[in-house]
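--- STAGE predict ---
source: upstream dedup step, 1 unique chain passed
mode: sequence only
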Amino acid sequence: MSNLHKIVIVGGGAGGLELATQLGNSLGKSNKAKITLVDQKLTHIWKPLLHEIAAGTLNPHAEETNYFAHASKHHYEFVLGSFTEIDQTAKQITLEAAQLSRPDQIQKSLRLDYDTLIIAVGSTSNDFNTEGVKQHCHFLDSRKQADVFQQDLLHLYLEAQNHETTRALNIAIIGAGATGIELAAELYQAKQTFFKYGLNKIDPKNVNITVIEAADRVLPALSETIAKHTSHQLEQFGIKVLTKHRVAKVDQDKVYFADGTSIEAELKVWAAGIKAPAVLEQLSGFEKDNIQRLKVYATLQTLSDPNVFAFGDCAHCQPTADEAVLGPRAQVASQQASFLVDAIKARVQGKPQPMFKFSDKGSLVSLSHNKAVGELLGQVNVQGFIAKSMYISLYRLHQAAIHGYPHAGLLTAKDFVTRKTGPKIKLH
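--- STAGE serialize ---
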């Protein structure tokens, strides 16, 4: 067993978990390599669902995958811990053991040996050191952060019930990328449901949702056609969009803009820009870009060490000189994970490393309940129920990648039943 090729994957997000599953089911099952997945959390949840968890329109407990249980079924090992550093000479990584039950205990560190290291730690929000953002804004980088927002929103509604008069609620979402837009649309749905369920001291008409963007349109990374359809839908929802508004400062009650104007907001969400997690900033001996992502070749090997791979949001990947650097998109991470399955198999067998090529399948943006907008293969525009069905199918494909198609089919049937019978919003 000790002679087996040791593959360590750091980060159990969508890409990392899909890769660990497929390598486990092939190399791990046939005893050709030892696969280890490392994450600082016990459960996995698909990151594009976080805006629904934040709005309370999705029960997170029903969508979680436990890493230990999953690892036992798919022939890989799971290690719970926070990745802190790499010793390239010794080919070891250092982890801080998670102290879930006793957070006051002294942190213990452990070391893992690797022959091939794959870093898939994703990204975090970039506040660009804007004054007051860390103190007064919510972020949606993790399940925990989404839960905090959901609880704060719910408590505002519960508190309002103790008063005789109705009140207004102002919510500001800074950043009109996919996360900001999807959250705004989901909050529109949530405010209707709160009222329907009897939490009526905050009238939906008095819930003012504002999306703020420094660029000249929403969804600046996507096509103008999608942006136009999205703006039209937000307008129908009564969601205010402020473009060409750069945020200068945030405090407890307001968002201040560079032009001297401001808006009131009790709840503020920062969804503008990304950067690599803090752990990558601290890594020495690796070439990085200006937002601390690891630079990789088209093989997805880091420029500094052929034994260390990186993919997804934490990797700066430019497959060819005439292509743009790949953006932080779910389909990039998913395609890279699929590519790495074959690439790592080739590496274990001593064969040459293949080159990654990205194929843009288009973009889809969820706009709550039965609506979505998107563009397929740069040509076909889709809207409404069809687009929403396609958006949901992306999640089903992710479930199929980590559980297999029969299991994913059962989960789909379960979700259909529970969503028909359960409450439309989480009220606890």
